């Protein structure tokens, strides 16, 4: 669900950042939501078709959870769509409140369900799904208007298909770019377990999540602010200084603390948690490089969507993923110690991500100038601040 959710909508939601008016953004919103419904329905049909072949391989509990997958993919996809809609409208208070309410709601539901149905693991899955419902419902209830909802009318689906064709660069380039990004965090445990055993995969998974948490909490928040501002005000004199401020803030508050945490982990882990955690500390030190590199680039990747440079994003995201896979296979072929293989993959991926960020920063001024020289079809100048009327956080409050 966490892997498939961000890509189930074929990344059409990223096209919202390139929209130059609220009307255009609401059309993309309808397109993204409809795509999410269609793709999750296809996942359900495929699951139904192959379920007879999976019955003998899965326990009853696993089969029940597998049936929840299409619904979970839909909700996770809607999470991405609603997030993009809030970011596009700079509804930062609504977005922040939703990202606070979701984990609180999930924890509360799990605790209540755990006391009522103490032996039923389905409570954990159900609470996770319901928290996604709360998240998207909260955002849409505070930001959607009747005019926005009119785009969902079946009478307008032909228009949505035309917009899908005009935004084909997003599923063709941004979708594989997102898959590549997800591969950097999800492929190492899988491949390392095949080469070195499941225990190494466990250490790897724990280590990455420890250094990835600051990226999710802080860097993605900076990215939401930066993307929302740039998608509505594409003036060169405003964007470039703001980008420098976001970069320096992210460097000082996120990237450097991750590296410091990684440097201390090999010493602190065995002292605090015991000697059996020593190897996990070494893995944390290695994956801190990837965490720091990802935290630096996370706030800026959607600028490629805003300025329609999707091919650049694919290159930036694909190279680190390819180096991760190559490093693991090379380490396994040479029979290296697992930690040496992990260091190779983290160094290569971090260097590639840093080079990609440097390339993006170099291309950003040219992308802004190009956007300013090409007015949109409806006469809106992309360099002008593109604010659209909506229920603001303040009025909703």
Automatic annotation (TrEMBL):
Residues 377-397 are annotated as: Disordered. It is a multi-pass membrane protein. Keywords: Cell membrane, Membrane, Transmembrane, Transmembrane helix. The chain crosses the membrane at residues 27-52, 64-87, 107-130, 207-230, 251-269, 275-293, 314-334, 340-360. Residues 387-397 have a biased composition (Basic and acidic residues). It comes from the Bacteria. It is found in: Cell membrane. The keyword Transmembrane applies. InterPro entries: Poly_Biosynth_Transport (IPR050833). This is MFS transporter.
């Amino acid at each position: 669900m966490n892997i498939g959710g961000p890509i189930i909508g074929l990344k059409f939601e990223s096209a919202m950042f390139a929209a130059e008016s609220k009307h255009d953004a609401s059309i993309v919103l309808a397109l993204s939501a409809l795509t999410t419904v269609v793709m999750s329905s296809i996942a359900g049909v495929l699951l139904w078709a192959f379920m007879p072949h999976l019955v003998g391989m899965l326990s009853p509990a696993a089969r029940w959870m597998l049936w929840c997958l299409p619904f979970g993919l839909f909700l996770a996809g809607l999470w991405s769509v609603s997030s993009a809609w809030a970011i596009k409208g700079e509804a930062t208070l609504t977005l922040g409140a939703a990202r606070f309410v979701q984990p609180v709601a999930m924890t509360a539901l799990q605790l209540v369900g755990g006391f009522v149905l103490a032996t039923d693991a389905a409570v954990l899955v159900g609470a996770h799904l319901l928290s996604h419902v709360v998240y998207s419902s909260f955002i849409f209830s505070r930001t959607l208007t009747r005019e926005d909802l009119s785009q969902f009318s079946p009478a307008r689906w032909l228009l949505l298909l035309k917009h899908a064709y005009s935004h084909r660069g997003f599923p063709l380039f941004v979708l594989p770019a997102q898959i590549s990004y997800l591969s950097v965090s999800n492929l190492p445990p899988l491949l390392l377990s095949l080469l070195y055993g499941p225990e190494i995969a466990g250490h790897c998974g724990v280590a990455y999540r420890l250094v990835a948490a600051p990226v999710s909490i802080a860097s993605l928040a900076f990215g939401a602010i930066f993307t929302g501002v740039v998608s509505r005000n594409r003036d060169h004199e405003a964007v470039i200084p703001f980008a420098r401020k976001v970069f320096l803030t992210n460097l000082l508050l996120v990237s450097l603390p991750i590296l410091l945490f990684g440097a201390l982990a090999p010493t602190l882990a065995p002292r605090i948690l015991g000697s059996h955690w020593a190897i996990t500390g070494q893995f944390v030190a290695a994956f801190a490089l990837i965490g720091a590199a990802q935290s630096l680039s996370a706030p800026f990747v959607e600028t490629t969507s805003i300025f329609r440079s999707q091919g650049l994003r694919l290159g930036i995201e694909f190279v680190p993923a390819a180096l991760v896979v190559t490093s693991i296979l090379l380490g396994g072929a040479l029979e290296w110690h697992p930690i040496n293989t992990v260091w190779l993959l983290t160094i290569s991926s971090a260097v590639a991500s840093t080079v990609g960020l440097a390339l993006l920063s170099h291309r950003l001024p040219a992308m802004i100038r190009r956007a300013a020289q090409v007015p949109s079809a409806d006469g809106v100048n992309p360099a002008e601040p593109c604010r659209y009327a909506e229920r603001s956080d303040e009025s909703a409050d």
